[in-house]
Amino acid sequence: NYATAIVFAMFVGSLMGTIWLTLPGINASIVGLKKLGIAMSISWVSTGLFGFASPIIGVALKKDGPISPTQYQPASIFVGLCYFMAGVTLVIARGWIISRNKYVVESLESEDDVLHITVSPKETISNL
């Protein structure tokens, strides 16, 4: 019904609005300030491409047939899995950043160009 759609829109809208605030900080901590412009450009292009393709995927996942309460169930499951995997990706990125920052502090390198530092998957997992 309409009230449920409004509540859903408020929750999703408040969560999706955080991308504009968090993405620059995450990009800066991953690639450094020297390459932030390039990283932001790639991030916005990839976000736009996925945003363009997602309605097509959602319509393709819709069940055919008469109108029923479960016709959008596959699309809802797909979206839920996408949110879950995005969360897992952020947790892994957090572990990687923590591990990488230990190397930066130990070697007293500049944080301007930190992409050349390699971190093993074992260290990343240990910092989750």
From TrEMBL:
The entry's keywords: Membrane, Transmembrane, Transmembrane helix
Transmembrane spans: 6-26, 38-60, 72-93
The protein, known as: Uncharacterized protein
Organism: Pichia californica
